[in-house]
């Protein structure tokens, strides 16, 4: 029985979804964020300052999930450990392919957080926006360009960027979980506003940066043939090694029936 060859889609194609995402990012950066800076940031922050401390403490716990240290350093360390195992452990060929894919997936997560974060920090230092606490304490509300003081690194939000980037990266491996991952990322982004370390416009800009650079990173990986392969029904899915790992994870958590032993 003959099989139709799988057509390789262009990873850089400006599909309908990509165009919609680009419009959303442009609106956030060029329209929504500037208008929010002018008309809403100060007033909403003053209202949020009235929230009971117990509520803020709850959001303090949530916001920690968006700290880059939970993703960048562990993923890089795991990729390095697997590389050492492949260099000196001499696994069988099938195991080698699986471990190599797993190492690449950890590097993918690392770069998905590091590259947008590096760009975002350049924007932070260049913009030099005062954090909400300076506005509440000293009535200082504005930008002081080329500033490395953390109190003037409000724009954009690093935690919001990390949470969105992680959700999009992990969602490449678990597409069905992507909506839930993005919902959690949005909650983390909101927590940054509630605990008064960022303005709403800071989060808007972070989401736009995260969406844009995540698409570029994922398109580059697909273009180079790393981790992902064209899917029979169109689009992309992970390579067979990744799907094998995914099935094992699902069986471990009881999401797939275990194979009966012979």
Task: Please report the distance between the alpha carbons of the first and last residues.
Answer: 30 Å
Q: Report the oligomer.
A: single chain
Gross morphology is elongated
Mean pLDDT rating: 92
The percent range for helix content is 55-70%
Order of helices and strands: HHHHHHHHHEEH
| Residue runs with pLDDT of under 50 for 5 or more positions | none
Count the beta strands: 2
Spatial strand sequence of the major β-sheet: 1-2
The biggest sheet amounts to: 2 strands, antiparallel
Integer-rounded radius of gyration: 21 Å
Instruction: Output the structural class.
Output: mainly alpha
Question: How would you characterize the overall build of this protein?
Answer:
Helices cover 66% and strands 2% of the residues. The chain contains ten helices and two strands; from the N terminus they run αααααααααββα. A hairpin with a 5-residue loop joins strand 1 and strand 2. The longest helix is centred in the middle third of the chain and has 35 residues, at 93-127. It starts with 15 loop residues before the first helix and ends in a 10-residue tail after the last helix.
């Amino acid at each position: 029985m003959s099989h139709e060859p799988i057509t390789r889609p262009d990873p850089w194609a400006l599909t309908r979804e990509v165009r919609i995402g680009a419009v959303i990012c442009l609106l956030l950066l060029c329209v929504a964020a500037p208008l929010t800076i002018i008309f809403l940031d100060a007033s909403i922050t003053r209202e949020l300052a009235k929230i009971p401390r117990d509520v803020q403490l709850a959001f303090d716990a949530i916001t920690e999930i968006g700290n880059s240290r939970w993703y960048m350093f562990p993923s890089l360390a795991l990729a390095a450990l697997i590389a050492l195992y492949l260099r000196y452990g001499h696994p069988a060929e099938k195991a080698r392919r699986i471990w190599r894919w797993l190492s690449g997936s950890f590097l993918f997560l690392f770069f998905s957080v590091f590259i947008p974060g590096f760009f975002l920090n350049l924007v932070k230092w260049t913009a030099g926006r005062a954090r909400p606490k300076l506005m509440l304490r000293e009535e200082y509300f504005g930008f002081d360009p080329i500033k490395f003081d953390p109190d003037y690194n409000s724009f954009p939000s690093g935690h919001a960027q990390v949470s969105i980037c992680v959700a999009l990266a992990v969602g490449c491996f678990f597409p069905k979980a992507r909506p839930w991952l993005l919902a959690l990322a949005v909650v983390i982004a909101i927590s940054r506003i509630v605990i008064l370390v960022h303005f709403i416009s800071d989060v808007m800009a972070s989401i736009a940066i995260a969406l844009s650079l995540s698409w570029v990173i994922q398109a580059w990986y697909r273009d180079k043939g790393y981790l992902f392969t064209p899917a029979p029904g169109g689009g992309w899915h992970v390579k067979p090694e990744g799907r094998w790992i995914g099935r094992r994870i699902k069986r471990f958590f009881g999401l797939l029936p275990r194979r009966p032993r012979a």
